[in-house]
Amino acid sequence: MSDVKETSRQTLLRRGFALEYVTLGWNVIGIVVLAIAAISAESVALAGFGLDSLIEIGASTVVIWELSGTGEDRQRRALRLIGVGFVLLAVYLLVQSTWVLATGHHAHHSPLGIAWTAITAAVMFALAFGKTGTGAALDNPVLKTEGRVTLIDGLLAAAVLLGLVLNGVAGWWWADPAAGYVLVYYAVREVKEIFFGDH
Description:
By secondary structure, this protein is an all-alpha fold. It has one domain (2-196): Alpha-lytic protease prodomain-like. Helices cover 88% and strands 0% of the residues. The longest helix has 40 residues, at 2-41. The radius of gyration is 18 Å and the shape is elongated. The two termini are 28 Å apart. 41% of the residues are buried.
């Protein structure tokens, strides 16, 4: 029976590693695509989403490191590192959204940005679902938490997408920074859970 459990655990671990490597690869490509789109459209939102991709790369690297070892101390350190990523994301979104609203910065229409954020939202939601389920099956709080990072990445992609579409179609330049404030709330909630919740 124990052999069956160990085999099942190894299968789940392999799945966890695969999900993280896919996330890493997607976000590495995303940084390049977003840099091109942000520069051509002069979009602060797309530049911000590029930073979010960097945070996601860091979070995935932390989970890969944690899955490679065992122990509660290792899990606590990994959770704290992911928590720092959430703090950075919340601060950046708050500063970026406030700056865009205060200056009335208008980005240009970005077909590349719209296409990439639309696809990224779908990919991140699927990856978040896989990580949350695998983390729950492994009883691994780090993988489950990183699944929430990926979910927020998907939500941010959707918010940036909405802002880009509304800016391009209706001229609502303020829609994207407004959506950024909503995401700040989710990021702060995760920071509180990681640093003050019961793991």
